[in-house]
Amino acid sequence: MVEWITSxxxxxxxxxxxxxxxxxxxxxxxxxxxxxxxxxxxxxxxxGTSAKSADLIDPDRFPVFEARxxxxxxxxxxxxxxxxxxxxxxxxxxxxxRFVKQLEGWVIAALKEFNVEGEIRDGRVGVWVPRPDKPxxxxxxIAEDKIAALGIRLxxxxxxxxxxxxxxxxxxxxxxxxxxxxxxxxxxxxxxLGLPVTMDDVDVALRRTFDAGFND
Length: 216
Description:
By secondary structure, the chain is of the alpha/beta class. The protein is 23% helix and 29% strand.
């Protein structure tokens, strides 16, 4: 059984790290159920294990935290739904690559609830949406913006950290970093795409689409 937890207000990032790690340890020990924890954070940047110092453009803009997850620099802030995923990957097949694909598929399915076609790109972590309304890229291809980021860590085959979906964050806040090390593509949100979507709407979509992706 997966427990769903939704925190109101803005959760301090150090608190989130501590709570996630404690829950992952308890799951590994058989003392707690798996959990999906939905939060928002105050504006901040996080550095994953592959973060490059040059990608932190404005280190004084917001607090910067070592996240101890995979990936590079990411932004979290109000208007962004963060879903921390504390699941027993061992019981789900001991297949990390498959688990990451399930995470990506879950985000894509949730976005489809709003008629947004999220896509995966080789060599680019996260979920992307084509932007035919924007100028073409220098190579003539259609512009693409990132709408969701992913980054996990495993401890004793239990995952923590997870994903973030841009609902209505201040997109200017991403300017203090090179998001996920990718400088030639932009960032978008559901509201930026012209959709009057609320955080509650996204939460409903995440719950509605979870079982199909993770219980196959």
